[in-house]
Automatic annotation (TrEMBL):
Domain annotation Putative type VI secretion system Rhs element associated Vgr: ranges: 79-185
Domain DUF2345, chain residue ranges per copy: 226-374
Domain Gp5/Type VI secretion system Vgr protein OB-fold: 10-59
Name of protein: Uncharacterized protein (DUF2345 family)
Organism: Paraburkholderia bryophila
Amino acid sequence: MHWDRLNDGDENASCWMRVVQSDTGGSYGAVHVPRIGEEVIVSFLDGDCDKPIVTGRAYNGAKKPDWHSNGILSGYKSKEYQGSGYNQMVMDDATGQNRVQLYSTSTNAQLHLGYLIAQTGNARGEYLGSGFDLKSDAYGAIRAAQGMVVSTHPTTGASSQPLDVRDANSQLVNSESVIESLSQASETHQAESLKDGYDSLKSFTDATQNSVSGAASSGGNTAGGGAGSANAFKEPIMLFATPAGIAMSTQKSTHIAANEHINLVSGQSTYIATGKSLVASVSEKISLFAQNVGMKLFAAKGKVEIQAHSDGVEFTAQKTVKMLSATEKIEAAAGQEILLTSGGAYIRLKDGNIEIHAPGKVDVKGSQHAFNGPTQTDYPLPSLPTSKYDAAMQYLYHDDEPVQGAKYTATLSDNSTREGVLDAQGKMHLENVPVGPVQVQLGPDVRQFARKDLTKNPDFKGEQLSESDIDSLLAKHGGA
């Protein structure tokens, strides 16, 4: 105390005093501990000098508030202990420019809401924008365990539901219709179906709609609020939605990965432009289908090469097929036979012989006809590569214990067979196998049978097995 001129000015100058807080309670409330050098207001309970209590703090000439002009800035600001950093929550009540800022000097992390301006201490600076700004000079993460939506679709007021995604859902349903109609047209013209992509998109769309009820009150006090239902997600999906467009930009690479399917659906056109190469490698097949106008494949420079390394190439057209060389020649060669036929007439080139047959007239005209002795030209045919792959499989019991030491016979796609035994992890590894399915016949586990009681089978569903459940069980335990 200023009037106590005999104390040493340390913690022994008085008894320890409680400090009044703005809100207090067991394990909740506000905590603002006065620091050395701050001016506090001390009262005495019941006027008893032995019962001092700190009832407040006050600014003074030495300790001034950071926000002191105009009377429109209020909030809380802390100070780093033995440092210059701080944390603050500013409420700005400027006319027509209301805002709230939650800020920390550590990594310059902040959440800025409302009418955004620059602020330095007591000074209100330039206009920065409107809405919210969440940023940090370090890292950031946003997580929601049951699903998340990021949307620029407008809401309908304070009572709008956070997961009201009807606008996005409507667009997804329209995309389903696009895929479904094009899939039907593709199948009609003997191209590949888009059914897997359609099913995947429909499953996602369905997951955006799920009505949930508010928590039922079991006692307590809800003041009559919190009842009713709201939309939620059936699965922890993430949905990005906007009525005006989405862009992703990076000076390096963009990566998209999916364990199942990737759907790209546009109501009009899809454009791909690349500064260098467009390279695609597909493990099974490529199917391209154009419904109305046609298909073009042009190369301004370089060759156009089409190769089938283990099967044939077919060109089929309802009308005319043209093969033109504008400045040089057309070469046709085959390892066994070339057959040209129309209307029952044919020319066959085979085994060094030429057959010219016709059910009608054979008309040969020319200024000269030369029938000399035999000669031949051996045309060089390329040797095409053949692919070999490795095949790895693991066989497990229903409780994920491996089948050990069992003999197996694997029949490959070229009808050759491989034999061996499973290792201690139930694994089989085959090297240099041809492309295609592998059928495996598996013998018994070499270990002595030991019964295990009460082992749970996660695949057991009683009599409620669907067709997909049966397919899943066969894939896991069928040994093929």
